[in-house]
Design brief:
Blueprint lengths: L1 H28 L30 E6 L4 H17 L4 E6 L7 H8 L5 E2 L3 H6 L3 E2 L1 E5 L5 E5 L14 H10 L9 H4 L4 E2 L5
Parallel strand pairs: 1-2, 2-3
Antiparallel strand pairs: 1-5, 4-7, 5-6
């Protein structure tokens, strides 16, 4: 009787754990709900913001990030690989969007980043960002080239849908009119300003 009880308890426990993993996986594959007051920003629009302090003529890659967002944390390794690969040709910056207080140094130390950290929420609205993580790529004249996802998979392992890398290559090769699928342009991740 005791063995049967332990056996059923273990089955229940593993079933509950399996359900939680399945539920979380489904939740992270659903698009982030679009806010009611959302205004879409078209490609080619000039993005003017004093936080950018754009003094030289390189493209700018803005990584919209919330340290409390699991999707942002899953994406960090991929983002750092982009910085390593393109950092000599593109200015990378992290835009922290969180109701909590962080310092630039705490973000740099925690995630091993040596790039500027910005805390200007107005950049999100200017670029049409309403969830994290999101990638925004501005050309050397600060016109919006790409706003969207990094990849279709949570761990950014699918090279065929590495949208941020495709956008970086397209801009650096001066491709105009690069077209992305809805999977690239629809937001997936944590809502702003709170991580939900």
């Amino acid at each position: 009787m005791k063995k049967a009880l332990v056996f059923f308890w273990l089955i229940f426990l593993f079933s509950a754990i399996g359900y939680l993993f399945w539920y979380n996986d489904i939740v992270y594959q659903l698009p982030t709900p679009i806010p009611k007051a959302y205004k879409a920003i078209e490609s080619g629009k000039l993005i003017v913001n004093k936080a950018l302090n754009h003094k030289h003529r390189k493209p700018v890659f803005l990584h919209f990030f919330n340290p409390d967002c699991p999707c942002s944390r899953f994406n960090m390794k991929h983002f750092k690989s982009l910085v390593k690969e393109y950092g000599d040709r593109v200015d990378f910056r992290v835009v922290v969007l969180s109701p909590k207080s962080f310092t630039a140094e705490s973000i740099q130390d925690k995630f091993g980043l040596q790039i500027p950290i910005l805390f200007d929420e107005s950049l999100a609205a200017a670029c049409g960002v309403y969830s994290t993580p999101q990638a925004v790529l501005l050309d050397q004249n600060q016109h919006l080239y790409y706003r969207g996802n990094y990849n279709t998979t949570r761990y950014c392992t699918d090279e065929k849908t590495s949208f941020a890398r495709i956008a970086l290559n397209g801009l650096l090769q001066k491709q105009t009119g690069l077209v992305f699928s809805q999977a690239a342009l629809k937001s997936y991740g944590c809502t702003l300003p709170n991580c939900k």
